[in-house]
């Protein structure tokens, strides 16, 4: 398949880009960190969005080398950011199956000099569905190193709550489907309020994804949600723009 060959070539050539979307501290408005999001600028087709190539990368196993590239780039970029600005990197289930994820992460930290506590790894429930001992052992080892572990897309799977008991997550990211329309939808409000309460009582940082309107933000603020991410604040942007945002923020 042509797409697969092109993607493999882009990974090998190191030409996949990484953009950064800010994570905003709702109380202060400060930039707490950024989520790293991969971007593929195809020589002929132009920008291909991740939803159009991450599934292919998963099917072909290319998400493993892609993940190494994104992680290393994100750690290198973040190491030059001021203070203790965090960087969040998405991990795929296949990266856990590859068997050397712990080494990949610790190598990226060592090579770039990024402090482990500044790295957040985002996993979805599908990772914990693996039910393998290796997954939990790897997560515990990464956490012991000082890396933070976030549950991404919280609320969309079938047993988000039981996963909270199987691993001590540092952060929950409320899926954007619950956040959109939060200013006006009372069902969404009830769900989001419950997740915030749950997170606060477990001592877990809560981030709302997909914050698009001032009304969404106002609701999150009134309920004490810790962080927000979404187009209301900024879209994902190249490292130069992210670094500039940090300079303005100081
Ligand atoms: O960046 P958004 O712009 O469109 O990302 C779309 C989807 O692709 C999201 O579900 C996101 O989690 C996923 N994604 C983006 N970057 C990465 C990455 O580096 N690795 C993995 N595994 N998924 C990613
Ligand atoms: O890892 P995750 O699936 O959460 O990836 C983040 C995805 O959410 C990316 O595709 C990104 O472009 C998208 N996104 C970020 N902010 C917003 C937003 O405010 N609204 C919507 N609809 N999508 C967003
Ligand atoms: Mn994510
Ligand atoms: Na998400």
From TrEMBL:
Name it.
Answer: Bifunctional diguanylate cyclase/phosphodiesterase
What residue stretches are annotated with the EAL domain?
A: 1-250
State the organism named in the record. Flaviflagellibacter deserti
Show which stretch of the intact protein is covered: 461 to 710 of 721
